[in-house]
Amino acid sequence: MDDCIFCKIAAGRLGSLVFEDDELAAFKDISPAGPVHVLIVPKEHIPGIKEVEGDAGIIGRMAARAVGIAREMGIFDTGFRLVVNSGPDGGQSVEHLHMHLLGGRPFGWPPG
Ligand code: AMP
Questions:
Q1: Tally of domains within the chain
Q2: pLDDT (tens digit, 9 = 90+) per residue, 40-87?
Q3: 2, 5, 7, 23: least CB-packed within 10 angstroms?
């Protein structure tokens, strides 16, 4: 989608990627909430997790890729958090499906 920032990043038109294949891209969050904060996104424009019913497997593939990136970034053993926000109460601010990979420090629970 032309006016979607994550579409542009995923297409390699803005900033650098830490991972990409035919389906997915990953890049560092511009406002990191921890020493490691990577966003995993589909290259195809999907607005959010509510719109994946036709291919729920994409969430699993994003999670598997996030675990691989966690391993590459040295946080596999210490632990990490995967987050998908949805809608206003969930705190979703970008309308392109994305999974947060957060690590490198302890995170509290429940989230704020
Ligand atoms: P969410 O609030 O779950 O929608 O997460 C959106 C995330 O995208 C936030 O953590 C932002 O810091 C991040 N973000 C917004 N714009 C950019 C950008 N241009 N490059 C990288 N990360 C971004």
A1: 1
A2: 999 999 999 999 988 999 999 999 999 999 999 999 999 999 999 999
A3: 2
Query: Would residue 95 count as lying in a domain?
Result: yes
Whole-number Å distance between alpha carbons of 32 and 21: 23
- CA 38/CA 41 separation, integer angstroms: 10
Give catalytic status of residue 96 as yes or no. Answer: no
In a domain, 56, yes or no: yes
1 confidence band (pLDDT: 50, 70, 90): confident
Residue 5 CA to ligand 1 center (angstroms) comes to 9
Q: Ligand 1: does its nearest atom lie under 6 Å from the Cβ of 95? A: no
Q: Which residues of 55-87 are buried (b: 16+ CB within 10 A; e: fewer)?
A: eeebbeebeebbeebbeebebeeeebbbebbee
- Tell me the CATH number at 53: 3.30.428.10
Q: Ligand 1 center to residue 44 CA distance, Å?
A: 17
In a domain, 109, yes or no: no
| pTM strictly above 0.85 | yes
